[in-house]
Specification:
The complex is a heterodimer of chains A (370) and B (364).
Chain A lengths: L8 E5 L26 E5 L9 H9 L18 H25 L3 E7 L2 E7 L9 E5 L17 H7 L2 E5 L11 H17 L8 E6 L1 H16 L6 E5 L11 H4 L9 H11 L4 H4 L19 E6 L5 H13 L4 E6 L13 H17 L5
Parallel strand pairs in A: 5-6, 5-7, 7-8, 8-9, 9-10
Antiparallel strand pairs in A: 1-2, 3-4, 4-6
Helix pairs in contact in A: 3-10, 4-5
Chain B lengths: L11 H4 L14 H4 L12 H7 L19 H12 L2 H13 L2 E8 L2 E8 L8 E5 L13 H11 L2 E5 L13 H17 L8 E6 L1 H15 L7 E5 L11 H4 L9 H12 L23 E6 L5 H13 L4 E6 L13 H16 L8
Parallel strand pairs in B: 3-4, 3-5, 5-6, 6-7, 7-8
Antiparallel strand pairs in B: 1-2, 2-4
Helix pairs in contact in B: 5-6, 7-8
The chains are: A alpha/beta (370), B alpha/beta (364).
């Protein structure tokens, strides 16, 4: 039997709540639990199972969570918009090179367009077959960072795999004093309606997907269209989205510190504060679709993809369950030991499996025979 | 009673306080003093939270040390102790008040079973085979009526709970393959002697019972024997080499399962090659052979979560009809707390799945 290497537990203090001063506590991993009423997050030197591919392992082993980088003092303060933009700019620079490389590798044609006033990148694969179909992609980046230009690793390989055009939406980003998450979702709705009304796509010939913030967008846009009674996309694949903004899903606790890419305390909490969501917003179904009612209205077949090693995992459990119980077609596709948006490591075998599942779902529920 | 440390909608930064346990002046005793130790999410039912949040893990109790690999008598004693656990007795008694069933001891192909007939029996031509949990070494159908009796009522179908033999015996030296063969014997008996059509047989189990269910179906599939209509194992161990990621990520977060304190002693006692696909079906190849429609139930708060992910991907890769259905925040075999909304939902979904796959279809 293979023994996992014993992990060394480090303890960090968190000062998310100013009225409770935190202190450092030594201890073993108690799942984010505290002694003395103090809040601690236990961080471990991450260990991964042996079955992970060499490609993925190389990336994961080299991955230092940004909150562990020397000099990291926390995400920007909620209302320090300049700092958020600076953080977004530096993240974009890191991603851009990989993005350019993937566009070149798959020899896609990239065209900048504005659909209903919203900027998109339209990516046409070298072997473009399914001309009556289009996939709408929403990029990740915590609702405040990245763009279609910097996140091509997340969608260009799928355009190639499916020989189908992908429109990646450059929705507005936070922070802003003028608009919020609902307006960001609105940008996605605008693009979808433009494709139906102005470009003549049948709604059922449009698929939608996206990871992280893109998963939020995919669910948010689809849910709004559903409430409006508007024609719905043929199928959707929300990947690793946040569907309960109160963070009352189990893996926000149990897997925090295990996912090298996203952290409840170090990442999502500051973003929610920056997005200026009120207590009422957090439980409002237009933000948190797990609290919505899905009976008595239409909803497209939804495949929820997520990694087994990510704090957002159980949001997908709950969203899947909610849709399924309302009688809609939904399925979970979860991949053991994978971090947040693992398919972005597009050349790894695990990413290929994830992408295959995404493609299968669209093919199964939309007619790709022509 | 657990203490809920925050209302649902307090501001986010502070909601992280929900991770906080009870204050104690003895940090080293933290594990047993914390009332809200396991801190299940608030969307879970109060009954589940009440039961588990202050749960003291088995291995922290006085009798919590598992016997050594060769301590035959001690394993038997441990089994006896579990069978006589007053909490288990109380739960089973309550389950029989909750579910109106008739129970008959029946031997099928030489294997002892309990035939559980619900008072609302509707599907006379269908049957559900249940393999009970108990770490491969413990329990019997009588002590896990909490699962099978309410299931019979929900399914309006007869449930046959299999009293497979337990390792390490008797007979001494019994192997996991022998346990699996007990399950196979019952399945074949049900098909060949009791005359049920394979498609009208549903199979499920929990924990060890799911291990045996999947192992049994795997053997039937390899042998090209007609397969059951659908299977719905809950929280099985499908990779005995323990490669699953949650064996690592969930250690210390699952109130009823531990790698060093529970899984490893059982594996050592079982004395088998964990990389043998007969034992670890997640390591098998499912290409080019039949497999029945599968729904893999599993708790979101358990170390066995990965095993269901792995098996699901394996089956999907081979083109089989498989779906994974994790219940967020639920511990290993949560459905034995049969009266909770999550247990009721699980039964409803299991029966709905079997119905969809035609287990209850009858030509009459």
């Amino acid at each position: 039997m293979k023994k996992l290497i014993l992990v060394t537990a480090l303890v960090l203090t968190i000062s998310a709540c100013t009225e409770d001063k935190k202190t450092v506590t030594e201890g073993v991993n108690l799942g984010g639990m505290t002694s003395n009423g103090e809040q601690v997050i236990v961080k471990q030197k991450l260990t991964y199972p042996k079955f992970i591919s060499a490609e993925m392992r190389t990336v994961l082993k080299a991955w230092i969570p940004y909150w562990e980088l020397p000099g990291f003092t926390g995400m920007p303060a909620a209302d320090d918009h300049d700092a958020w933009r600076a953080s977004a700019a530096s993240k974009a620079v890191q991603q851009k090179a990989a993005s350019d490389k993937v566009a070149k590798k798959f020899q896609v044609t990239v065209e900048e367009k504005h659909l209903g006033g919203v900027r998109v990148l339209e990516v046409t694969p070298k072997n473009w077959v399914h001309k009556d179909k289009v996939l709408v992609h929403f990029h990740g980046g915590g609702m405040y960072s990245q763009s279609p230009d910097t996140m091509m690793t997340a969608y260009v390989p799928l355009a190639d795999e499916m020989n189908t055009k992908i429109v990646s939406v450059d929705y507005r980003l936070l922070p802003s004093w003028d608009y919020g998450i609902l307006e960001q979702i609105g940008d996605g709705v605008t693009v979808f309606k433009h494709l139906v009304e102005k470009q003549g796509y049948k709604a059922s010939n449009i698929g939608m997907f996206g990871c992280s913030a893109g998963g939020i967008m995919t669910m948010g846009v689809t849910n709004r269209l559903s409430h409006e009674g508007y024609p719905l996309p043929g199928a959707i694949v929300p990947q690793s989205g946040m569907y309960d903004w109160t963070l009352d899903s189990d893996t926000y606790k149990t897997l925090d510190g295990q996912d090298p890419v996203a952290s409840t305390v170090q990442y999502f909490a500051p973003i929610i504060a920056m997005a200026r969501l009120t207590e009422d917003d957090l439980i409002d179904p237009s933000y948190s679709p797990v609290f919505d009612t899905f009976t008595g209205r239409k909803f497209p077949p939804a495949l929820f993809q997520a990694g087994g090693r990510e704090v957002l995992l159980s949001d997908s459990f709950r969203m899947y369950d909610k849709l399924k119980q309302a009688g809609h077609e939904a399925e979970l596709d979860i991949h053991d030991a994978m971090p947040h948006c693992a398919h972005n490591v597009y050349y790894a075998p695990e990413a290929k499996v994830i992408r295959q599942r995404t493609a299968d779902w669209f093919k199964e529920h939309m007619d790709f025979s022509q | 009673m657990n203490k809920i440390l925050l209302p649902l909608s307090i501001t986010l930064a502070c909601s992280l306080n929900s991770f906080a346990g009870e204050q104690t002046s003895e940090p080293d005793k933290l594990v047993t003093k914390v009332e809200n130790r396991w801190n299940l999410p608030l969307h879970t039912s109060e009954q589940q939270r009440n039961l588990w949040n202050s749960w003291i893990p088995y291995w922290e109790t006085e009798s919590g040390t598992m016997p050594g690999p060769n301590d035959y008598e001690q394993w038997l004693a441990k089994r006896e102790e579990k069978a006589n656990d007053p909490l288990v007795a109380r739960f089973n008694k309550a389950a029989l008040e909750y579910a109106d069933v008739e129970i008959k001891e029946v031997y099928i192909n030489g294997v002892r079973t309990l035939e559980i007939t619900p008072s609302n029996l509707e599907h006379n031509n269908s049957v559900i085979l249940f393999s009970h949990p108990g770490g491969m070494y413990a329990h019997k159908p009588e002590t896990v009526l909490t699962d099978a009796a309410p299931m019979a009522m929900t399914a309006k179908t007869k449930v046959i709970s299999i009293d497979y033999r337990k390792i390490p015996g008797p007979p001494k030296g019994l192997k996991i393959q022998d346990q699996r063969d007990d399950v196979i014997s019952v399945y074949k008996g049900v098909v060949e002697k009791l005359g049920y059509k394979p498609k009208n047989v549903g199979m499920y189990g929990c924990s060890a019972g799911s291990v045996l269910t999947v192992q049994a179906v795997n053997k039937l599939s390899h042998d090209k024997y007609p397969l059951p209509g659908a299977i719905a194992p809950n929280a099985g161990l499908y990779d005995w080499t323990l490669q699953g990621d949650t064996w690592y990520t969930m250690e210390g977060k699952d109130p009823v399962m531990s790698k060093p304190h529970y899984a490893e002693p059982i594996i050592a006692m079982a004395k088998m090659d964990p990389s043998n696909p007969e034992i670890s079906p997640a390591l098998d190849n499912f290409d080019g052979r039949e497999w029945p429609p599968t729904m893999l139930f599993v708790g979101g708060r358990e170390m066995l979560l990965s095993d269901s992910m792995m098996l699901n991907q394996k089956l999907k890769q081979a083109g089989h009809d498989s779906e994974i259905n994790p219940f967020d925040g639920m511990v290993h075999c949560w459905n034995v707390v049969f009266y909770t909304p999550e247990a009721i939902a699980m039964r409803k979904q299991l029966v709905g799945f079997m119905k969809e796959k035609g287990v209850f279809d009858s030509e009459n």
